[in-house]
């Protein structure tokens, strides 16, 4: 093995899929791209890293709700584009041709073009670490969508796309909690 600069070690532990997080500040909806997400167990509990550097952060903290919209691999350029402009001066829904759909439990919209959407409430914001804890209140999946592979950011401007699923459910059945 060759040494790897410690500053690049984070690229070895790639987080959950790229998500488009929608918020609503009471006047308008916005979207931000988040590449650092995680599941917090076998329930609809999630965490993401964001902070005041994102325009949507204030709306997220104030409204205590959002939607995690999960783009498929064919939306890579859209996800990157959303992440490289600010909602302060850009209507991202219009700029990227995305369709906001009304959510059932939160004010932030779903994104019609995404593979899945999860309506969430903010449970806590851990300020020193820029971690937002979320609880899902409703989830939607577009099974009719042809492209179902998700995107994962490596952290250095490159991305990995999900590949073929390998089924080991039977092998793990006795090891998983009930209902999984």
Automatic annotation (TrEMBL):
GO MF terms, alphabetically ordered: oxidoreductase activity
Signal peptide: none
Listed cofactors: FMN
EC number: 1.5.1.-
Keywords: Flavoprotein, Oxidoreductase
Broad EC category: oxidoreductase
UniProt key word Oxidoreductase: yes
Pfam families for this protein: Flavin_Reduct
InterPro entries associated with the record: Flavin_Rdtase-like_dom, Flavoredoxin, Split_barrel_FMN-bd
Domain of life: Bacteria
Flavin reductase like domain segment(s): 12-153
Family: Belongs to the flavoredoxin family.
Protein name: Flavin reductase family protein
Source organism: Shinella pollutisoli
